[in-house]
Amino acid sequence: MTDQHVVMRLWLLMAVLSVGCTAAPKRSQILDAPVVPFAELFAPADTVRLDSSIIIGAIMFLDVNQEGDLLVTDFIGGSVNLFASSGEHIRTYSPRECLPDDENLTPYSARFAGKGHVVTKDLGSRVVVLTADDHCVSATRRMLHLSKGFCTSGDSLFFLAWPEPWASSSSYNSVLVYSLGLQSLRDIPVEWPKFPRLNRPFSGMWDRSIDCFGDGPYFTYLESMDAIPVRFDAQLTQQRPEFYSPRPQDLQRNMSREEMTAEWQKYLSTSAVFALTSQTRMLLYSNLADRWRPEGVEVGYRYGISVASNVGLFPPRSTISPDKPLAAGYGYIYRQGDHEPLPDGDVGNPLILRYRFIPPQDAED
Questions:
Q1: In what side-by-side order are the strands of the sheet with 210-213?
Q2: Which residues are CB-neighbours of 85 under 8 A, at least 6 positions away?
Q3: What is the tens place of the pLDDT at every residue in 172-219?
Q4: What is the rounded CA–CA span in Å between residue 75 and residue 112?
Q5: Whole-prediction pTM value?
Q6: Which of 86, 248, 334, 363 is deepest in the core (most CB within 10 A)?
Q7: How far is C-alpha 296 from the chain's CA centre?
Q8: H-helix or E-strand spanning residue 156
């Protein structure tokens, strides 16, 4: 068992013992994250050309492991494929074979888990766990709750429950912990979203509302300024991106779908949290104000990114990007490029652009 897994088990035990005491982490300080050029935080590393013998219709979710392998979920093709860091195809996983009588199972996201396992999830609440060599471990058509996202740490799975808009403001939401066998281990209470009616119908990047770090999972809601640690005893120094502006109110009752969509898009939203490293969180924001639009980029195509150290190794920074990252991990971010032109004139798979994270140079002692 690695040191990270030991730490994870210890804080989980502390969280269980503390249920009923508090569900909100302590926050004592807010640090501004000034906007810097993208190239100051991320440097091009290489381009991954996915094996053209496997056709990828659309990359809906991408996960990476420490070796740089790529786990690609293709929603159009209904497949989950494993590629080496070089782009060589290693394996196609078959989650549908674990629920053979369920025609509606279409994987939308997939993550690496402990002992080489792979966990897939669809748009609803179907979850399948597979071994590294594509054997079924466990599967369910319906989890106990709908989930806004999940992450994995060792042999534990963490699902952020989808908040109910009609619950009282004094309620707690939950992070649901499951084993690789999809046995419920515990529910950890976490703070309630400030705007539950907003968070119920809308989401950011699908299944990116939570990620696992060395000190446990962190999660976000659409109105979040920063990621929120699940650990009850966390004393997180929050970061505030220069482009951040708080959303003034929740959705009103009895709005039409069109009215809700317009209100959602009117203000900045926090779309995702990524474990850039085991100690570094990266957040993605959408719907930035027009003044943050990079020159030459169309309105609507701009994203804000912030990076911060969970343990205070460097001051937080933010940047503007015309493209959203597909994934992040082990010191790299991954973005989707154009489709690769093939020698026969056909169009191949989308290129994966890999960038190396550059920690801010004025790190604090």
A1: 210-213, 216-219, 228-229
A2: 48, 67, 68, 69, 70
A3: 889 999 999 999 999 999 999 999 889 988 888 989 999 999 999 999
A4: 18
A5: 0.89
A6: 334
A7: 28
A8: strand 156-161
